[in-house]
């Protein structure tokens, strides 16, 4: 996908089982940049790096590194003590994306807020993972979250994580802080768990879930991240976190890892990016909270 001259150690196997090399990974990120970059623009990132491929040791990196130089923009953010100030990374262009892939980055995780309003998220995120890999259960949960979002005057969007789950995401106007967004998401999750107690739970402790699907809203917090749309995942087969149309949940055989480095561009060529204009539908958190309270 990418000429070897553009990549250090281009033949290094990053996905040994599938045979995908570093040149393939860098080439993927250059090619997918037009779809992926709008979802990264202005957002601090955390990288999941595997310099020696999936067979080697991986690690997460949230702080900008000196050797990145001007190729990666930095963004100083103040966290609560004891962390204090951290120079985070931003990636707003294809050269940056390719450079970070050349550093062994397989997966990009992004904040739910952008640099112009780091304390005011523009996304509400429900992270859904079935306890036993049951896609039917996962799809039902996603539709139930989406229905409640619509009842709250929010516009839900769905994405495979490329791992085992789905994300249901609602775009927001960046007006309220993280605590307010997480509080409403938590109340929504609690309502769903009360309505479907045999299938859904808000219990964080695995042993207390008793086989039910956990409605995880903890990514709606300052400094938390979620996998970025069109990011590869550090899993065999090079699966891709892929935005979907809601009707695609009805497809037989759909799995969270259905789309991969090998086949995602065929899909993009047919459908484009279902999330491309999601912020045309950004919701108002105060109105959503009022609508939620009116449901009782």
Automatic annotation (TrEMBL):
Q: Name one GO molecular function term.
A: ligase activity
- Residue ranges of every copy of the DNA ligase D polymerase domain listed in the record: 21-275
Gene3D superfamilies given in the database record: DNA primase, PRIM domain (3.90.920.10)
Keyword annotations: Ligase
This chain's protein is named: ATP-dependent DNA ligase
In which organism is this protein found? Guyparkeria halophila
Source lineage = Bacteria, Pseudomonadati, Pseudomonadota, Gammaproteobacteria, Chromatiales
